[in-house]
Design goal:
mainly alpha, 291 residues, Endonuclease Iii, domain 2, Endonuclease III, domain 1, 13 helices
Length: 291
């Protein structure tokens, strides 16, 4: 050992100098708690999240555009004028030679194209030329003749039932009033309007098929989806003397241009009057509610 260096002596109290009398663990724990408390004190309390209030549904552009009224008489008049110009001789596409043949063809046209019905009816009416001939059948006997039109079982019952009703209550003649037509099996307002308007030239309502339903909504002439409500809406805005031809024009328009998928908007004579949300091309603003 070098001279002059004295080794450190053990403490008389049994512990080293400058060592706290408290247990080491307790001290460390205390320091950690203090440090954590300081850190917590520095961090601002996080406020509880409050759900954002629900915003009211956005209005469609049709209602927010100042001064725009889709049912304005001048707008409806212009729509009708352009339809007259494009489809001046529009009429029912179902081939028929009598009110009875038109009635049967219209019943068969449900969920079926007019082209298909026109392929079926010539053979059908040659085989059964009168309502009496249909009334003498059992529905099952007719099914094979109209199978290609779809839903042939229900349609067979409707046609045979309508024939028997005509014979028993209307002298074999197709009625000329809405109330009487609606008494026939398989006849609703659409079928009755076709017969009254096309054969008898009686404007008692507007024919509402899938084309009329789709296009009248696109043109914002109605907001309803139910055919009967759509008919009532159209009867309010379309003049009565236009009810018959208007439906035929819209049906032709739906087949030629305003199809359900990919309408040919660039070729449409009503393009600048139409704000439909599902247009494929537009020179005017789009209204989300018009579809």
């Amino acid at each position: 050992m070098p001279r002059g260096v004295t080794p450190r002596q053990p403490s008389r109290l049994g512990r080293q100098d400058k060592v706290s009398g408290k247990p080491l663990r307790a001290k460390v724990k205390t320091n950690r708690v203090a440090t954590v408390r300081k850190r917590v004190a520095k961090v601002a309390p996080v406020p509880a999240r409050i759900a954002a209030p629900k915003q009211p549904a956005a209005k469609t552009k049709a209602t927010t555009v100042k001064g725009y009224n889709p049912l304005a008489p001048e707008r409806v008049t212009e729509i009708l004028r352009r339809l007259d110009q494009r489809y001046p001789n529009a009429t029912c596409a179902l081939h028929h030679n009598s009110a009875w043949e038109l009635l049967v063809a219209t019943i068969l046209s449900a969920q079926c194209t007019d082209v298909r019905v026109n392929m079926v009816t010539p053979v059908l009416f040659e085989k059964y030329p009168t309502p009496e001939a249909f009334a003498a059948l059992q529905p099952e006997e007719l099914e094979g003749d109209i199978r290609s039109t779809g839903f042939f079982r229900n349609k067979s019952k409707s046609v045979v039932g309508a024939a028997r009703k005509l014979i028993s209550e209307f002298g074999g003649q197709v009625p000329r009033t809405m109330d009487e037509l609606l008494q026939l099996p398989g006849v609703a307002r659409k079928t009755a309007n076709v017969v009254l308007g096309t054969w008898y030239k009686i404007a008692d309502g507007v024919v509402v098929d899938t084309h009329v339903q789709r296009i009248s909504r696109r043109l914002e002439l109605t907001k309803n989806e139910d055919p009967q409500k759509i008919e009532q809406d159209l009867m309010k805005v379309v003049p009565r003397d236009k009810w018959i031809i208007f439906a035929h024009q819209i049906i032709l328009h739906g087949r030629a241009l305003c199809s359900a998928r990919k309408p040919k908007c660039a070729d449409c004579p009503l393009e600048d009057l139409c704000h439909a949300a599902d247009k494929t091309w537009s020179t005017v603003e789009i209204h989300r509610g018009a579809k």
